[in-house]
Hints:
With about 300 residues, the chain is mostly helical. The chain has helices spanning about 1-25, 30-55, 60-85, 95-100, 110-135, 140-145, 150-160, 160-175, 185-205, 215-245, 250-260, 265-275, 280-305. It is built from 13 helices and no strands. α2 runs antiparallel to α9 and α12 runs antiparallel to α13. The radius of gyration is 18 Å and the shape is globular. The relative contact order is 0.19.
Amino acid sequence: MTAALALLYKLLPLYITVALGWFAGRYLEASGRHIAGIMLYIITPAVVFAGVMSAPLTPAVVALPGLVFLCCCLVALAGWLVARFWLKTPAANMIPLTIGTGNTGYFGIPVALLLFGEQGLGLYIVCMLGTTLFENSVGYYLAARGRFGVRDCLLRVARLPSIYAFALGVTLNLSGRDIAAVFVPLFDNLRGAYSIFGMMIIGMSILSFRRLAGDWRFTGLAFVGKFLLWPVVALSFWWLDSQFFQLYDRAVYQAVFLISITPVAANTVVIATLLDTSPRQVAGTTLLSTLFALVYIPLLVSWILAP
């Protein structure tokens, strides 16, 4: 219980940041759409590149983003099949992105640091790259299918810079290159902006708290996929590998499980805003999932990840 309360205290600044975003959108008329563009095309690629460059890319570690990516796809496709028949609205195409990834960056990183320390944090970030890769490829494609044809969706995915930032980071890392010292403060600042703007954009998208959940079918499906299906997939991987394959150790299982229980990603609101596909519905669901995670994550962490 002490660990749960300590984690709860650690998460409070994230919720204050969401509240500041709501204040900026409600009273300062701050534009979430403009910030969404900056996030998707400038800040996120920089954070991805810096994360890949600092990761220890051994063959076993290199496989982890691919493993997490496959898990994201499995959860997303299951949600997409259900949403197509249950929702029958353009918002259905946001379900795969909503449940497939998670707020693994500006929400998950502080939690991972608290739970695993500096050494475990590096492993968590490598696993987290799988969700980023999904978010900027399959997740974005399925979300865009709600408004655009196959050709247009593929062209939009091809224009996402995070994919190329990931590939460039892997290439330079494996060739033994490092980020020049003069640019390190720049990437540190961009990482801070990533955290602040990513959480604030959730608050900016909430104009009213009266109908925060919007369509309860969308919100309910998102919660089932994000907080039930994804953890089941992560625990299944934990059990299968520990019992039969034994490729990884407990540290990897814990990192993947933490990824599975993070709330809906703030970048989902960014993409919904840019695509103009139910941004208020997505923002409300994202905020509700973030509030729910305030209790859900400490409880599951103290139960599943306790030594």
